[in-house]
Amino acid sequence: MSSIRPVKQARKALLWLLIVFIIATGVLVAGATTGKTGWGPKLALDLEGGTEMILAPRVQGDQQINQEQLDQAVKIIRQRVNGNGVTESEVTTQSGRNVVVSMPGTPDQATRELIQASAAMEFRPVLISGSYEATPKDQRTAEADLPKPDGDPKNASDTNWVTADLYKKFEAYDCTNKADIKSSENADPAKPMISCDAKVGVKYILGPQEIPGDQISDAYAQLARGVNGSVTGEWVVVIEFNQQGTKTFADTTQRLIALQGAQNQFAIVLDGQIISAPTTNAVISDGRPQIQGGFTQESSQALAEQLKYGALPISFDIQSERQVSATLGADQLTAGLIAGIIGLGLVFIYSLFQYRALGLVTIASLLVSGILTYLALVLLGWGMNYRLSLAGVAGLIVAIGLIADSFIVYFERVRDELREGRPLASAVDIGWGRAKRTILASKAVNLLAAVVLYIVAVGNVRGFAFTLGLTAIIDLIVVYGLTHPTLVLLARTKFFADGHRLSGLDPSLLGVEPLYKGAGQIRRFGENVEANRGKKNAKASGEAAKRMTIAERRRAEAEQSKRSGTASSKAQEENNE
Amino acid sequence: MNKLVTWGNELYTGKRSYPFTSKHRLWFTIAGALVILSILVPVVKGGFNLGIDFRGGSEFTVSDVQNTDTKIGETAVTSVASSAEATVTNIAPNTMRVQTERLSDDETLAIAASLADGYQVSSNEVTSNFIGPTWGQDVSRQALLGLFAFVILVGLLMAAYFRTWKMSLAAIIGLLVVIVVTAGIYSVSGFEITPSAIIGFLTILSYSLYDTVVVFDKVRENTKDFSKQSKRTFEQLVNLAVNQTLVRSINTSVVAVLPVASILFIGSYMLGAGTLKDLSLALFVGIIVSALSTLFVQAPLYQWLRRNEPVIVEHTKKLTVD
After folding, report:
1. Where are the bilayer-spanning segments (chain B) (predicted)?
2. Residue B197 contacts by C-beta under 8 Å, 6 or more apart in sequence?
3. Contact, A127 vs A263, CB < 8 A?
4. A49, B124: Cβ pair inside 8 Å?
5. Which of A280, A362, B8, B113 has a C-alpha 20 to 30 A away from that of B135?
6. Tens of pLDDT along A87-104?
7. Where are the alpha helices (DSSP H) in A385-423?
8. Separate counts of helices (H) and strands (E) for chain B
9. What SS3 state is found at B229?
10. What residues have CB less than 8 Å from A330, skipping those under 6 apart?
């Protein structure tokens, strides 16, 4: 059997691993020295300290919440939390149902309420428009000229809603001031309010709520059609109201069409902020108004999404809330790392005890897996914002055992082949061919479990599943790129090939005849001994014979006939124990 | 090493052999009894010891405590919410845990502050944890969903890989035995069931099947052309495969259990209850049960499932008549 090919392949595999290693390290060093990422993996909240809230949507009856609505909810909650001055907070969805908010520190009561509140969408008519910033003090309307209502307002568009106080507040209202914006967040739907339209840069006084957001049944973006039905190339947003909304909207447009100036507009308000304030061009009696005006495909779709979200205002209940002190997190990380080091040490000792020098290959492979895992965690933290949690650390520790398992499967296979009497080099080649399949199948099971766990995960299971899956892949890379090639090369060294007592592959220990057979007879190591096997091994050697190439079999047959009747027997074999 | 290697050699050649398949009745009876016990015990005991995640409530952990008097914790709770009942436990050196019924946001913040005060630690040493009563149910529901999806997928995967559904079926029945017995041991020992423990259970699935795949791979190799040889019956071939992989099974299980045991040890010694400990406890029990189950349930079961196949019956008859 030619030994050149496996050696070449082994060298190539090692080279590839080295290249992967160098690239990953290079990216990390480049990222870390330029300050784009740290040297260590990003830590999750339970290790870094902070608060994690898991929010469950409050739904009525058998109402279902879909992913789209959940994504919208996440966007809105993210806006709220970050707008509130909390930085570095993370808002994510979980198992298609819950929203997870993680933030450093402890949120105050206001933030808590803000997070839980539903997104309130509503339609209000515009009463008065004004400049985006506060009117300069010297230009404000004199006390005597302030509007004085002459009676109760008759409808939502009635300017009698605007009192002197409200108008004063309106002039002082500054859309660039966070405190002012916040004040309009929870406006009473029955009363007029002040709100800003950031897109146009205008602020408005709006009449009371005319249509609540939940009367929208759908909203979507589409290309507008001209009178003759041809596509005009302009993007518009179409809203579809439900029955009640259709009726109210028809009445509203009927009224607004007759009005002039700003009063012709109505505003769509989400969380106190205007997302669109279109003017009324026609009476819409079919409940399918179209909003148009300089939309791009993207902006029209964004607006449609926001409108659709308004169709189902969701509020959230805090289902679980954890405040983790940074000290506890640090303690747990320390404990986890100590556990990991002890676990690793025990595995090292056990492999050395079981596999002697081969144990060193296990140790080297485990160390390389460790380094690759570390690199992967840091780079994933950088690229995908992956954060290592305590459960993730547990996954890494559990993985030590699972990674070492694949080496054991491989080494035992090689030993099996040695027991069949093969020389080490071919035992490694053939053992690998069989171990490879087992390792792939068992890693597939591991990976599948990790993926299933990750998909259905609740809470911190995800971190665990993630590291478990990640290490399964890294294990494969290391077994293919390091363990096997190293063994192929080592099998060609004298120490291993001659079956040194400490190599862990000492053929005499494995039930193969000793090299020195006494009475001056020396068996050439690697000689085909299958032929000399006792009856008990007939099956096993038969199987091994089947695996030989034709040339090998011929050689074996020739040797068998030459040696029949001489030397070794089963009895001798048993004496070796 | 020498002895173990020699033992391994004897197992490999068939010189030494343990009756995994021939005594299957005994093993199945034991496994069946364990499964029944594992189902009965929790019923008799009135269910599992469910953690706070399933009952709902608030939990505080105070670290770096010098004075571990439980009274301080109780007073700290009642000073804020007079009607609340607090369970205060010293879970690890310098660490106190306080569990109460569900509290409002304000109360939670106030109790956290008064605990920090009472135990004379800074407020960032107090961790609070509020769990709604549906949280644990959510975890369990997802876990069941995961179990279901995983069993189906892995059943298909194994059937495809081994090209026989009987191996897949044997593996999955064995898997269920592992889950039930591990849960039974959990119940008997009175350990608290927490979401972390449930994650542990799900991981056992993966480990158990991993272990089975390794053994079944050898079984398949040995029995591939069984009808073409006349040395051993099908049953003997399966048994030989299990014996041949015995050293491997022991080694992989020991190596898998070592790191888990170290988490368990460090987790309980340094941290008391928590993610790490609950997870590793379930894994520790599960890995041992899985390894045993592969040898005594999965492999004999596979042989048992195939015992009546005409080819095997005929082959066995031919060998025994000779």
Report:
1. 26-44, 143-162, 169-191, 197-216, 254-273, 279-297
2. B51, B186, B191, B278, B279, B281, B282
3. yes
4. yes
5. B113
6. 567 777 776 678 888 877
7. 390-419
8. 13, 6
9. coil
10. A47
CB crowding B235-270: b at 16 or more within 10 Å, else e: bbbbbbbbbbbbbbbbbbbbbbbbbbbbbbbbbbeb
Q: What count of other Cβ atoms lies within 10 Å of the Cβ of residue A225?
A: 13
Minimal C-alpha gap between B157 and chain A (Å): 8
Between CA A95 and CA A101, with CA A96 as vertex, the angle to 5 degrees is 75
Find the closest chain B residue to A443 by CA distance: B210
Residue A397 to residue A413: CA distance in whole angstroms? 26
Contact (CB<8Å) B252/A391: no
Across the strands, what pairs with A54? A100, A320
Contacts of A46 in chain B (CB under 8 A): 275
Chain A residue closest to B226 (CA)?
A: A539
From A502, which residue of chain B is nearest by alpha-carbon distance?
A: B1
Question: Which residues from A are below 8 Å from B146, CB to CB?
Answer: 452-453, 455-457
d(CA B100, CA B77): 8
Range with the poorest average pLDDT among A282-286, A506-510, A568-572:
A568-572
- The label of the residue with tokens 């830590």 reads A43
Query: Cβ of A311: how many Cβ atoms within 10 Å?
Result: 20
pTM confidence score: 0.69
Q: Is A445 in Cβ contact with B134 (below 8 Å)?
A: no
Q: Is the pLDDT of residue A35 over 70?
A: yes
Rounded-to-integer distance, Cα A425 and Cα A446, Å = 30
The pLDDT-based confidence of A529 (bands split at 50, 70, 90) is very low
Contact state of B206 with A445 under an 8 Å Cβ cutoff = yes
